């Protein structure tokens, strides 16, 4: 009887324990599944930062999706795709001598003037990437934007400057036509970079370094030109002074001539008015009635006009 009861209870216990084991297996399976999901979740969701776009790359065919992904959370299949992030905010590329300012060592631009004189330059270019064309930019170069800047863009800058500087005298480049050369180079860069979605916002030549011999020759020329200008100004000043003196002399001579002519005219009029009768009348008018005193007892005679 006892064995019978024991057998019965043992059978019942086994039956009770069996459903608990199945449940445990299911729970473990669910936990394992969640763990797997959590493990792969970071690779299935990509966060794209503001001011950036995402480029979706298909691993199976190696192609690039033509539509960029905007900022925010983006889902993807980590086994079949990848996302590369590109900045679209304004950036500045500095190409200068020595490190610093974003330069990779010595990034100065070296070109030649129309005379063949070498010139080294420090330049900078501010630009933005057009979001819609970023996938094509990546498909063309297959690298990050920093490598593109110091590769293709740097070469485009050098080529544009060589075309512009190579057509101008070195004295014009470092002097009155520097602004013109800068603007022309900027227009050439816009034309060459815009097909890749690189929009040039500003381009400047920060420093020009011509050979020292050229600087000395230009300085000597400037000094000589200044001396020639000073001499020319002094000559003009003397000419103006001489001309002024001549005008003054001519004025004085003209005044003297006019005065002489006036006096001669007056004398002429006076001579014409002095008739004999007028002279006798004036003499009579001035006579005081006294006979002039003369020696020898002679009486002077004064002729008076005869009455008519």
From TrEMBL:
<keyword id="KW-0812">Transmembrane</keyword>
<dbReference type="InterPro" id="IPR001107">
    <property type="entry name" value="Band_7"/>
</dbReference>
<keyword id="KW-0472">Membrane</keyword>
<dbReference type="InterPro" id="IPR036013">
    <property type="entry name" value="Band_7/SPFH_dom_sf"/>
</dbReference>
<keyword id="KW-1133">Transmembrane helix</keyword>
<feature type="domain" description="Band 7">
    <location>
        <begin position="44"/>
        <end position="222"/>
    </location>
</feature>
<dbReference type="Pfam" id="PF01145">
    <property type="entry name" value="Band_7"/>
</dbReference>
<feature type="transmembrane region" description="Helical">
    <location>
        <begin position="27"/>
        <end position="48"/>
    </location>
</feature>
<dbReference type="GO" id="GO:0016020">
    <property type="term" value="C:membrane"/>
</dbReference>
<protein>
    <recommendedName>
        <fullName>Band 7 domain-containing protein</fullName>
    </recommendedName>
</protein>
<dbReference type="InterPro" id="IPR000163">
    <property type="entry name" value="Prohibitin"/>
</dbReference>
């Amino acid at each position: 009887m006892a064995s019978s009861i024991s057998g019965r209870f043992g059978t019942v216990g086994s039956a009770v324990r069996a459903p608990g084991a199945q449940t445990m297996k299911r729970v473990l399976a669910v936990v394992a599944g969640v763990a797997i999901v959590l493990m792969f979740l970071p690779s299935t969701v990509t966060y794209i930062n503001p001011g950036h776009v995402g480029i979706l790359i298909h691993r199976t065919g190696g192609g690039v999706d033509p539509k960029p992904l905007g900022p925010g959370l983006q889902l993807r299949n980590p086994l079949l795709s990848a996302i590369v992030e590109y900045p679209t905010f304004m950036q500045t590329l500095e190409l200068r001598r020595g490190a610093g300012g974003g330069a990779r060592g010595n990034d100065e631009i070296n070109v030649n003037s129309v005379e063949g004189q070498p010139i080294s330059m420090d330049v900078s270019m501010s630009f933005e990437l057009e979001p819609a064309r970023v996938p094509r930019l990546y498909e063309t170069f297959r690298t990050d934007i920093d490598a593109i800047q110091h590769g293709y863009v740097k070469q485009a800058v050098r080529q544009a400057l060589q075309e512009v500087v190579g057509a101008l005298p070195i004295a014009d480049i470092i002097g009155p036509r520097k602004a013109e050369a800068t603007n022309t180079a900027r227009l050439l860069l816009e034309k060459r970079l815009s097909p890749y979605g690189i929009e040039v916002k500003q381009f400047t030549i920060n420093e020009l370094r011509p050979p020292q011999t050229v600087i000395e020759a230009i300085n000597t020329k400037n000094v000589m030109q200044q001396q020639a200008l000073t001499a020319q100004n002094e000559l003009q000043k003397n000419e103006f002074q001489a001309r002024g003196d001549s005008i003054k002399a001519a004025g004085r001579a003209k005044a003297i001539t006019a005065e002489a002519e006036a006096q001669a005219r007056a004398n002429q009029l006076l001579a014409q008015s002095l008739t004999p009768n007028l002279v006798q009348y004036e003499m009579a008018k001035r006579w005081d009635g006294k006979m002039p005193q003369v020696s020898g007892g002679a009486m002077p005679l004064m002729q008076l006009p005869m009455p008519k």
